[in-house]
Specification:
This protein is an alpha/beta fold and about 260 residues long. It has a single domain, classed as Rossmann fold (3-Layer(aba) Sandwich). The structure holds NADP nicotinamide-adenine-dinucleotide phosphate. The site of NADP nicotinamide-adenine-dinucleotide phosphate has 30 residues, from helix 1, helix 4 and helix 7.
């Protein structure tokens, strides 16, 4: 495995499943050594094994992005193996479908703690390596729900809106250090999270096929669609792209409330 990211060291959070897994596989295929972080250490290690079996280099670690201690421990492990980390993909996330009036402070805070504060903590943990190297790539996975709004997802969409604004602000601050920071808001990607939500009826009674039929490109997105955009944003070639929102959504109208 070699390519545009040869010699780079990357960390992907939420790398044990769905979009994070696809990004980890893709960055490894591009030549990066990949630290796979996930709340579920077993799935992180399984993805790392998958990468290794395919000829790449990876290491899986159980890391809860709500814990600064666990993040620092995971980052320390990856640095100890391969040196400074100069690519970070924040894909760890949790959803919440709830009527607005039923959202408690505890639920609101729990969603923000993973989606927004988790992204903040991981960026802060690896930014010193990037600043020292004078080169870095950060890709934050937000959500199309933050662009158009989403009923029954106020806490989730607000947390992802925070990720978008955080991304733009961090891009301005770290740009002079050779670091780009961009966000991909996915729209309707088939992952375990989406399948779980469809099974609970959250995508409407007609399910996944009906949503795909309403999508302009007439199919659901795959995690690899996000990974392809992520791979480009992490490359040297994307060095003049920063603070951007790169929608990968099959042309779905991101101002519409339809999921
Ligand atoms: P997924 O398959 O459920 O993957 C999310 C991963 O994040 C899971 O492995 C999950 O671990 C992990 N995670 C959750 N809380 C964590 C924590 N505190 N620390 C570390 N890891 C944690 O879902 P996905 O669809 O790939 O989602 C990836 C990202 O894309 C998320 O940020 C999501 O909000 C965003 N997104 C997805 C879509 C879509 O259509 N799929 C659309 C918009 C945005 P566990 O499984 O152990 O909980």
């Amino acid at each position: 495995m070699s390519g545009s990211l040869d010699g780079r060291v990357a960390v992907v959070t939420g790398g044990g499943s769905g979009i994070g897994r696809a990004c980890a596989l893709r960055l490894a295929a591009d030549g990066a050594k990949v630290g796979v972080f996930d709340l579920d250490g077993e799935s992180a290690r399984a993805v790392a094994d998958e990468i290794t079996a395919a000829g790449g280099t990876a290491h899986g670690v159980g890391v809860d992005v709500t814990s600064r201690e666990q993040i620092n421990q995971g980052v320390g492990e990856i640095r100890g193996l391969w040196g400074p980390i100069t690519i970070l993909v924040n894909s760890a996330g949790r959803e919440l479908f709830k009527r607005f009036l039923d959202i408690t402070d505890e639920l609101w805070n729990a969603v923000h703690d993973v989606n927004l504060a988790g992204t903040f903590r991981c960026c802060q943990a690896v930014a010193p390596d990037m600043i020292e190297a004078g080169w870095g790539r950060i890709v934050n996975i937000s959500s199309s729900s933050a662009q158009g709004g989403q009923p029954f997802m106020t806490a989730y969409a607000a947390s992802k809106g925070g990720v978008i604004t955080f991304t733009k602000s961090l891009a301005l601050e770290l740009g002079p250090n050779g670091i780009t920071v961009n966000t991909i808001p996915p729209g309707f990607i088939i992952t375990p999270m989406t399948e779980r939500n469809a099974a609970k009826g959250y995508l409407g009674a007609d399910g996944l096929d009906a949503v795909a039929a309403r999508t302009p490109v007439r199919r659901a997105g795959q995690p690899e669609d996000i990974a392809a955009a992520c791979s480009f944003l992490c490359s040297d070639e994307a060095g003049y792209i920063t603070g951007q929102i790169i929608g990968v959504n099959g042309g779905r109208n991101t101002t519409s409330a339809v999921f």
